[in-house]
Amino acid sequence: MADLFAPEWMTSFQDVWNNEAGLSDELAKIGFSSTIAYGYLGEDAPRGVLVVENGKAVSAGAFEGQELSWDIRASQDNWTKWMSKPPGMMGLGIAYTSRKMQFLVGDYGAMVKDPRMAGPFVKSFAAMGKA
């Protein structure tokens, strides 16, 4: 397995994202388009970026200064834990309120209040575990 959020891993994540039931298809229904970055707490920049257009991941790779819609950070241990046992909405809420998961860009509160986005967000962790 490639290092978490390395370009090779991000490409694998892109493929899984597009084939994960309840993820890209559900986001396509609401025209979801975003540039999503992933990385580790305490680092200056995220490591990997996934570009999503109308629900479908169209590119993935290293962060190279792109303008971001979302920048999601956590410790490597927490990312690994969530990928092996994807959290539900309650687990994500606890991770967010305890600051184990931080959104340096993006509005977590608005996202979780919209079930059309919250469900796929939860499913993205299952997809990560398959990348």
TrEMBL record:
<dbReference type="InterPro" id="IPR036527">
    <property type="entry name" value="SCP2_sterol-bd_dom_sf"/>
</dbReference>
<protein>
    <submittedName>
        <fullName>SCP-2 sterol transfer family protein</fullName>
    </submittedName>
</protein>
